[in-house]
Amino acid sequence: MRVVDLKIEDVAFGGKGVGRESGKAVFVPYTIEGETVSAEIVREKKQFAEAELVEVKQSSPDRVEPQCPYFGRCGGCAYQHISYGHQLAIKWRQVRDALQRIGKLKDVPMRPIIPSPDQYAYRNRITVHAQDGVIGFFRRDSHRLIDVEHCPISRDEVNRALSELRGQPHVRDGHYTLRASANARIFSQTNEAVANALRDLVVDLVPPKQELLIDAYCGAGFFAKALLEKCERVIGIDWDRFAITAAKENATGKETYIAGDLEEELHGRLRSIAPTTLIVDPPATGLGPKVRQAIAEVAPATLIYVSCNPPTLARDLKGLQDKFIIDSVTPLDMFPQTAEIEVAVHLQA
């Protein structure tokens, strides 16, 4: 394999730095824009190439020492080599760029990114894997495991649970979800502080005196229950029957929670009982075509789209922009040190 010298021009969504060789984009992990590096080409395609970092020849002032001994081998974190302030700047820019490039949105009304109060020790749950006596996470770009004794982005209680698991004499092969608390085993948010900031943001964005709120992908009613004072009626929909059971446990008379095929339920209900406010918080795949179409047809006065994947968010917003005005786009750093980004978009019909 050949080694090339590159000037890193940008950091792409997913966390890899982007340089160019003879006009072709070369993706290099663990680099920062403005750096000069040498990198070994490991995969070459027609349009781009993948490389591994060999040496940083001229480093960025935002380069810092990672706090995790597994960083660079473990596939979990992508940004521990970058100062936290610059991580936020990169993620903010990635959201804007995705909406402009994929969503074809010209003037994106970006708000400042909401940071995490804790840059490390924030995760209240992790899933580790066990195979042939090795307990840990998958290596980057691989299905091979790396043995992990301690995860710096996880809370102390989670790391204690990891130590207890590792201390068992015979750990069977499989996946193990380790939690900071035994309570709310299904529904706890991974970064509670930023999840609460997201909930508060959504509450602020919804106008008062709403006739009907539909909260799609509602889980245990995280948003819906926080909005009861602003709504006469609330309908929550989720595929997870356990989450819906939890939502029903302390539900008031104005709350209805439905478990079922989310695409079918949401599509049908949007057409039959047009809500004044709609909240969608889909998985990384985004909204299905039928749901996008139904939202565009019904065009609720207030639409709030919470996304964990800027590219699919951009695709969906592109399909909705004829019926809605985008009022604000707010990124949130739910997962510091990783390449993941949470985004809340406020749209008005």
Describe, in plain words, how this protein is organized in 3D.
The protein has 349 residues and is α/β, with parallel strands linked by helices. Helix content is 24%, strand content 30%. The chain is built from 7 helices and 17 strands. The strands form 3 sheets. It has a 7-stranded mixed sheet with strand order 13-12-11-14-15-17-16, with helices on both faces. Strands 1-5-6-4-3-2 form a 6-stranded mixed sheet, with no helix packed on it. A 4-stranded antiparallel sheet has the order 9-8-7-10, covered by helices on one side. Strand 14 (277-280), helix 6 and strand 15 (302-307) form a beta-alpha-beta unit. Helix 1 packs parallel to helix 7 (310-320) and helix 5 packs parallel to helix 6 (289-298). 38% of the residues are buried. The model has no long low-confidence stretch (mean pLDDT 93).
Biggest sheet, in brief? 7 strands, mixed
Order of helices and strands: EEEEEEHEEEHEHEEHEHEHEHEE
The radius of gyration computed from the alpha-carbon positions, rounded to a whole number of angstroms, is 22 Å
Helix content: 10-25%
Mean pLDDT: 93
Note the quaternary state here: single chain
How would the global form be characterised? globular
- Report the β-strand fraction as a percent range: 25-35%
Structural class of the secondary elements?
Answer: alpha/beta
